C-alpha cells in the first residue's frame, strides 16, 4: 500500500505503425513523487524519415489508454497542453514529458510512442 499523496509512474514505450524499424527507449522504470510536485519522463528514439510524430499516453490502473500530448518533428516549438510540457530535442533524438502539479489521478504507466510519416498511409 502506498503512502498518502504518493504518486507512482511506471515508464513504458511503444512504437506505432507496421514498419518496426523505428525505436523508442525509456530507461526510467518506476518513479515515486509526492502530490503537487513536478516529474520529468525521458524518451529516446530513432526515426527513419524527416517527418515523424512523437506521442505520450498514460494508462491508469483502470486499464484505459489515455492520449496526453504529441510533438511533430518539423515543429521547432515545444508543445504544451495543460499540466504537460514537452522538451523536444531533435538533434539528440530525445523528448521528455514534464508533468506539473501532480495529483493522485496521475498515477499511471506512461508510454512514449513514435509514428514515422512513412507509416501514415498504412
UniProtKB/TrEMBL annotation:
One of the protein's GO biological processes: adaptive immune response
| Stretches assigned to the Ig-like domain | 22-122
**Which parts form a coiled-coil structure per UniProt?**
none
Q: Which residues form the signal peptide?
A: 1-21
Mention any one GO cellular component term assigned to this protein in its UniProt record: T cell receptor complex
Q: Which InterPro entries match?
A: Ig-like_dom (IPR007110), Ig-like_dom_sf (IPR036179), Ig-like_fold (IPR013783), Ig_sub (IPR003599), Ig_V-set (IPR013106), TCR_variable_region (IPR051287)
Principal cellular location given in the protein's record: membrane
Compartments reported by the entry: Cell membrane
Q: Tell me, what's a Pfam family for it?
A: V-set
PANTHER family on file? IG-LIKE DOMAIN-CONTAINING PROTEIN, T-CELL RECEPTOR ALPHA CHAIN V REGION
Q: What is this protein called?
A: Ig-like domain-containing protein
The source organism is: Muntiacus reevesi
Amino acid at each position: 500500500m502506498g503512502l498518502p499523496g504518493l504518486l507512482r509512474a511506471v515508464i513504458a514505450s511503444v512504437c506505432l505503425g507496421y514498419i518496426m524499424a523505428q525505436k523508442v527507449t525509456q530507461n526510467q522504470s518506476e518513479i515515486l513523487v509526492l502530490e503537487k510536485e513536478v516529474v520529468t519522463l525521458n524518451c529516446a528514439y530513432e526515426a527513419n524519415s524527416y517527418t515523424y510524430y512523437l506521442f505520450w499516453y498514460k494508462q491508469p490502473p483502470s486499464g484505459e489508454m489515455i492520449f496526453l500530448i504529441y510533438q511533430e518533428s518539423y515543429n521547432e516549438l515545444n508543445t504544451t497542453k495543460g499540466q504537460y510540457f514537452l522538451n523536444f530535442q531533435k538533434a539528440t533524438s530525445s523528448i521528455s514529458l514534464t508533468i506539473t502539479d501532480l495529483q493522485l489521478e496521475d498515477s499511471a504507466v506512461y508510454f512514449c510512442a513514435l509514428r514515422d510519416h512513412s507509416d501514415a498511409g498504412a
